[in-house]
């Protein structure tokens, strides 16, 4: 069959009949002539088509050789935030049970790992605190480091509707993002100064007594330490660091502090920094000070995820230090539960994170790397070093829809099914499980990730059980009790279920922490975190700051949207430049420009716009010709290793014909 159109279900409990331009129109890739339809194996003459049997045998022999030569930790896997929960569960189970390593990670490492670390440290769980329906009831929205109008259009439209109904809006973002023109206050901090900004807002809340003293006394800890720290963040001092005028900072704090039902929504502009986890912690402080989390007096702190299953991939344990449900691999009790269910001992030390995998490959310590649905050469930072890592690894397996930039460096390429060709579940940004069902079969010899993992396991001599996705989710509920009440059958009846949901006869918790926080003592944790500078700052050699992000018509690396109808809406990458910077560099709109950083260079077409402030540039990473991530650095969040995509010092010059 063919997909003629995509129409969102009007009775859908989450989207309510709405879809973004990508969801509606970016399905042409399904039957693109560039789809991978049979396995490819690298031989002397290059990549050659082979049978599944030959490809699987080559992979199994390569995995055995790596383990025999250097032990289980010589093998690693990068799972996929585009894969289903069940596929992610099976991938991490294979790595831990069959290979015997915790070397498994997913792309949340590169976007929202600071959210997981920061929110769990502040409140106890690694997810947003409230549902989108809750957020829609807010009388004040604080939208930070996010452009939902372009990057999350369904959410963006619903936030805008709430503003048009009378909610006050504070936007904090260096760029004039889509919601900014509707904001009561638009804070435009210098990139990399979020912690100072959030500390400044907290200073005003405390100074003007816009806090919930009873909540702080009964349900939080850490106030004395935070109060002492915030003495150093009065509005004038914060202005010197962030560039935000003191009067704007005070106005924003008062709007949030005087609201009856405030909500915080944030994106990658908070997390993708050298101190991204500190950014999440200090942002969470604001909700805690206001008593606006775990109560009916506000709607907490809610991250907008980067891909369709970023939340779910992490929930399922595709992480080097956490098992399904976020139990630590180093915790004997947590590990013992999984060992009893899986029937084998598990390694108790943390595995490698994605950046560590690449470093190990360059050093010769990693001998096999399995990359599932991720184009790391396009999306990961310091791309030249990523390529070096892949070329240094004896066995690289790429599981993909297309011959991506990453697949071109692989030894074995496996043709995978897309989301419209598979069965399972995803988890959205407010922790709701939803079903996905196949609308058509994968083309030719392509297989679902679920089937591919089973096939590799069988070739390796391992039996993972879980014959169907439904069985995999059921087993995951045994390992992770927070998911025990969720099943395919129940989702087919109810449509969407949020976790935690330990009981099949009770609803999941859409709003968290009403009784207690999920910390050992049940109290929220305020964090006294000082501002520290970003990894790079402008200087005479590199006087501009580059911010990277997304455009409205494209999805992530662009491998799907560049092969769909949406390419006509946004056919090429471009570099946003403020008019004053364009004039200084004698650049006109549409000119070819060269951008250089300490790490690499890339070319773009200039787009002169006041959406970006003077001294800053913006580009996306959807087009391989642009090579935006050849520019970005290896600087990463000190807690989670999330890259600092939002602050790169660069220089600019026009390219003469």
Automatic annotation (TrEMBL):
Q: Does the keyword Membrane apply?
A: no
What are the record keywords, sorted?
4Fe-4S, Iron, Iron-sulfur, Metal-binding
Which PROSITE patterns does this UniProt record tie to the protein? 4FE4S_MOW_BIS_MGD (PS51669), MOLYBDOPTERIN_PROK_2 (PS00490)
This protein's GO CC annotations: membrane
One GO biological process this protein is involved in is: formate metabolic process
Q: Which domain of life is it from?
A: Bacteria
Q: Which GO terms describe its molecular function?
A: 4 iron, 4 sulfur cluster binding; formate dehydrogenase (NAD+) activity; metal ion binding; molybdopterin cofactor binding; NADH dehydrogenase activity
Q: Which NCBIfam families match?
A: Fdh-alpha
Q: What's the name of the protein?
A: Formate dehydrogenase subunit alpha
Name its species: Nonomuraea phyllanthi
């Amino acid at each position: 069959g063919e997909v003629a159109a995509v129409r969102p279900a009007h009775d859908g409990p989450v989207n309510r009949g709405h879809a973004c331009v990508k969801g509606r129109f970016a399905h042409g890739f399904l039957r693109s002539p560039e789809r991978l339809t049979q396995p490819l194996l690298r031989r002397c003459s290059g990549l050659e088509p082979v049978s599944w049997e030959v490809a699987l045998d080559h992979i199994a022999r390569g995995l055995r050789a790596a383990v025999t030569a250097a032990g289980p930790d010589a093998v690693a896997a990068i799972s996929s935030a585009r894969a289903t929960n069940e596929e992610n569960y099976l991938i991490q189970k294979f790595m831990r049970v069959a290979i015997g390593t915790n070397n498994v990670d997913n792309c949340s490492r590169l976007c929202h790992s600071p959210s997981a670390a920061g929110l769990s440290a502040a409140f106890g769980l690694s997810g947003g605190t409230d549902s989108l329906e809750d957020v829609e009831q807010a009388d004040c929205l604080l939208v930070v480091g996010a452009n939902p109008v372009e990057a999350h259009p369904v959410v963006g439209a619903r936030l805008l509707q709430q503003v048009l109904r009378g909610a006050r809006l504070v936007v904090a973002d260096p760029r004039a993002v889509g919601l900014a023109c509707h904001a009561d206050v638009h804070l435009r901090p210098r990139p990399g100064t979020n912690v100072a900004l959030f500390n400044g807002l907290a200073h005003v809340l405390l100074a003007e007594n816009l806090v919930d003293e009873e909540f702080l006394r009964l349900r939080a800890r850490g106030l004395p330490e935070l109060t002492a720290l915030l003495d150093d963040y009065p509005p004038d001092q914060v202005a010197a660091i962030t560039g935000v005028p003191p009067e704007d900072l005070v106005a924003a704090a008062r709007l949030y502090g005087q609201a009856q039902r405030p909500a915080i929504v944030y994106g990658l502009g908070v997390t993708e920094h050298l101190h991204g986890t500190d950014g999440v912690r200090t942002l969470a402080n604001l909700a805690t000070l206001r008593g606006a989390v775990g109560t009916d007096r506000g709607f907490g702190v809610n991250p907008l995820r980067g891909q369709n299953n970023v939340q779910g991939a992490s929930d399922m344990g595709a992480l080097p230090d956490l098992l399904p449900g976020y139990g630590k691999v180093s915790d004997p009790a947590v590990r013992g539960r999984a060992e009893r269910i899986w029937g084998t001992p598990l390694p108790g030390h943390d595995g490698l994170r994605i950046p560590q995998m690449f470093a190990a490959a360059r050093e010769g310590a990693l001998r096999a790397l399995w990359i599932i649905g991720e184009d790391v050469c396009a999306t990961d930072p310091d791309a030249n070093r990523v390529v070096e890592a892949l070329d240094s690894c004896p066995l690289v397996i790429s599981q993909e829809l297309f011959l991506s930039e990453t697949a071109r460096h692989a030894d074995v390429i496996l043709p995978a099914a897309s989301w419209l060709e598979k069965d399972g579940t995803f988890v959205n940004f407010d922790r709701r499980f939803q079903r996905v069902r196949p609308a058509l079969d994968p083309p030719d010899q392509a297989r679902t990730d679920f089937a591919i993992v089973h096939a590799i396991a069988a070739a390796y001599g391992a039996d993972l059980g879980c014959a169907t996705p439904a069985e995999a989710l059921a087993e995951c509920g045994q390992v992770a009790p927070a998911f025990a009440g969720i099943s395919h059958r129940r989702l087919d009846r109810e449509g969407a279920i949020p976790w935690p949901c330990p009981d099949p006869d009770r609803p999941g918790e859409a709003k968290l922490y009403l009784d207690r926080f999920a910390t050992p003592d049940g109290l929220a944790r305020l964090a006294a975190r000082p501002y520290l500078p970003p990894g790079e700052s402008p200087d005479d050699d590199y006087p501009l700051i580059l911010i990277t992000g997304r455009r409205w018509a494209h999805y992530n690396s662009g491998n799907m949207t560049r092969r769909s109808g949406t390419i006509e809406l946004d056919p090429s990458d471009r570099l946003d430049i403020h008019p004053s910077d364009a004039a200084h560099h004698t650049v006109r709109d549409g000119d070819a420009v060269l951008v250089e950083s300490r790490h690499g260079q890339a070319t773009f077409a200039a787009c002169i716009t006041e959406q970006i402030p003077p001294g800053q540039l913006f580009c996306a990473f959807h087009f391989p010709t642009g090579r935006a991530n050849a520019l970005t650095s290896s600087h990463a969040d000190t807690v989670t290793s999330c890259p600092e995509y939002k602050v790169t010092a660069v220089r600019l010059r026009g390219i003469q014909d």
